[in-house]
Amino acid sequence: LPEGLVDGIEVYSTKINSKVTSRFAHNVITTRAVNHAEEAKEIFFDAELPKTGFITNFTLTIDGVTYPGNIKEKEVAKKQYEKAVSQGKTAGLVKASGRKLEKFTVSVNVAAGSKVTFELTYEELLKRNKGKYEMYLKIQPKQLVKHFEIDVHIFEPQGISTLDAEASFITNDLLGSALTKSFSGQKGHVSFKPSLDQQRSCPTCTDSLLNGDFTVTYDVNRESPGDVQIVNGYFVHFFAPQGLPVVPKNVVFVIDVSGSMSGRKIQQTRDALLKILEDVKKDDYLNFILFSGYVTTWKDQLVQATPENLQEAKTFVKSIRDQGSTNINDALLRAIHMLNKAQEEHRVPERSTSIIIMLTDGDANTGESRPEKIRENVRNAIEGKFSLYNLGFGRNLDYSFLESMALENQGLARRIYEDSDADLQLQGFYEEVANPLLTSVKVEYPDNAIQDLTQNSYQHFYDGSEIVVAGRLVDEDMNNFKADVKGHGALSDLVYTKEVDVKEAEKALKEQDYIFGNFIERLWAYLTIEQLLEKRKNAQSEEKENLTAQALDLSLKYHFVTPLTSMVVTKPEDNENQMAFADKPGEDAEGKPSQHPARSATPSTAYQVRYQPPQNPYYYVDGD
Amino acid sequence: PHFIIQVPEKDDAICFNIDEDPGTVLSLIQDPVTGLSVNGQIIGDKRDSSNSNTRKTYFGKLGITNAQMDFRIEVTTEKITLWNGVVPTTLSWLDTVTVTQDGLSVTINRKKNMVISFGRGVTFVVVLHRVWKKHDFLGFYVVDSHRMSAQTHGLLGQFFHPFDFEVSDVHPGSDPTKPDAIMVVKNHQLTVTRGSQKDYRKDTSVGMKVNCWFVHNNGEGLIDGVHTDYIVSNLL
């Protein structure tokens, strides 16, 4: 079809504009469309954004009139929301889309000859993983777009060391010529601007070739292990030392071999463990604990990863078979006892770190099966001495239980998606935690200089990652302060001291106007909210209320759609019956619906099927 | 590089230069009892002069080894690498960092100096002299050596033991501002010149003037043997 006209609707412009400053990304997705038909038509807007992003705005402009978004406390917004939902008049949704993304969908009825502009803004802090920051965009326009552009500007005060951009759908030189990437000093730029002809899947086709992942990766110069940046009284401290040797690990793999793991899952687990064994370093100690209804161990105690032991371990792994039910409690307690004993009896190096990596695909149903009790037992046994990482394989499990248990034991949980690459996901997770360079890391500032500090102590600093601490200066006129980062290395204890000249640091960021002014304050708010929400997962009663209140206040103040807030876009003359909604699902939403009946009432699942396009728009963007 | 030997008993100092080709490694300290050794590698200055009389040389790399602890440090003007056994830890002069482990402490003070202590009783300071890119050089100071053995040797190490010298017959030299004199040291009679060198420990840019008696000809007569006896093959 000429100029990408589909059913009378022309999407004539789609632009993704990203500005990244000091790892903080501010993204604006703008789509412009016009209804060329002789009758009112429904126009859809789809955008996929990272789960780690917070929507900060969504506006709709019809024939030049803009309807801005308003952030409201979720409960307040919900009243409007429920009323509209009850009448089946929802139109906007955000739902989980794959592993990394959430899909925002909205549609509006547009009169004949009218134009509409959708603008979605979201922000996220890019986290460093395996030596790179990654910005991930999903591209899938429904039709050819006359002006299609992705424009990414990066500004990093430390200087950019590498920058790359890749698109899974770039398969030929023609489309490759639409992509340009460049960096110099502190600035980087990526532009992807395919013409209409370049977008066609074949010279005479009307469907688009653009369908897939668009990924920008970069890293910064690290002449110094730490960098402190200050703007308008807020500071952020990035810490990622290089050149340190890896701290030896004592790792116990606790593997679910219950009946539900049968078939591809157990095969993928075996494959992943065999690959992981190839990466285990000779100074590491390891053991395997398998659990079904019973708990069995490979060795009675941890053994060093000598070539002979690794060979024996591989033979053991190949012999793993599925059987029986699921006894998580006893398996974990056995692993904890094993690590404690190894340390008490000095069987493992004094300067080493102990971790448990548990993989399960289901809920406990043998032995102690009450999640709360298992958590209590594990917490009391570990006593904060080492980290527990929980990997939830597939969907048929209580992920929030695994996550809570990991978080309260200095670890983290990760979902392993049941897919052809599950073995690579497992291996990838191991790689992330395989190379601790420092343990018990604490970032310290003078009490009288800093306030509202984000998390400043970490069990591990992993090679290729980065510790980020943000806060507020007590006195904006102070001249300097000192930041100490203390940690235990493989061979020695290290204290990195950073003298921060406040005026110099502010001056160095004069160029920040290049991107946007208050990004460090927003970065601080983003990080604070993210950490409050995480803490909230394990908090009880009053503490939980306090954490919720703090996170809510910040979400409202900084206009973030978080799990506590909703964004409503209202056309002033409309009544409340005419509205559309979007929802931000959390990890919980990916669990088993049958075990979480409340979820079946969430708008993202209940009302999408009953969607009726409203005559006039009323929009609502929500976080789970 | 120039050497300053302070002699507290005399409240005076002796200086000498060692002129060798860039790349040469000199033994500065060698203690067979504690296992500590310090070697320095020479670099030339920015001017590419083939005339050894005008060419200035400095230390561009230092290697510090503690054989008993199986510990080594290589300090260059770019970076600092610590080895514990075969495992390296790399740090930068842009860091301010303290590394501590049993019996050892290494502190790098961003762009200025680093302090290396082996327990109580042995402390060295390395100063980074920032000249211009790719032509920085290093200074090495011994601030405490009292735990080192009497068998310590090397261009600096030989002076850790008490020694005596006498200066007499101070008379005008070729430079009217720098009188010559006769020095008797280690059973040698030498002609020395009053001059000054700088101690950069406290102020790495300006330094502190130290008056000393300068011994000519690569410290000949002052040092045990001749300076080429101190040339070693490896930094570490």
Helicity level of chain A: 10-25%
General form of chain A: globular
Number of helices of chain A: 13
How would a textbook summarize the main sheet of chain B?
7 strands, antiparallel
Shape of chain B: globular
Low-pLDDT segments of chain B: none
- Largest binding interface between chains: A-B, 19 and 20 residues
Give the quaternary arrangement of the chains: heterodimer
Intertermini distance of chain B: 19 Å
Count the strands of chain B? 18
Chain-averaged pLDDT of chain B: 90
**Overall SS class of chain B:** mainly beta
Radius of gyration of chain B, whole Å: 18 Å
Note down, in words, how this protein is organized.
The complex is a heterodimer of chains A (624) and B (236). With 624 residues, chain A is of the alpha+beta class. In chain A, the strands form seven sheets. In chain A, strands 1, 2, 3, 5, 6, 10, 13, 15 and 16 form a nine-stranded mixed beta sheet that branches. In chain A, strands 20, 21, 22, 23, 24, 25 and 26 form a seven-stranded mixed beta sheet that branches. In chain A, α4 (264-279) packs antiparallel against α5 (307-318) and α6 packs parallel to α7 (371-382). Chain A is globular and about 80 Å long. Mean pLDDT of chain A is 85; it is low at 572-578 and 589-619. With 236 residues, chain B is mainly beta. Chain B is 2% helix and 52% strand. Chain B contains one helix and 18 strands. In chain B, strands 8-7-6-5-4-3-18 form a seven-stranded antiparallel beta sheet, with no helix packed on it. In chain B, strands 1-2-17-16-15-14 form a six-stranded mixed beta sheet. Chain B has a five-stranded antiparallel beta sheet with strand order 9-10-11-12-13, with no helix packed on it. Chain B is globular and about 55 Å long. The mean pLDDT of chain B is 90. Chain A binds chain B through residues 223-225, 241-245, 489-499, and chain B through 79, 81-82, 84, 87-92, 94-101, 104, 110. β32 (493-501) of chain A pairs antiparallel with β9 of chain B, so a sheet runs across the interface.
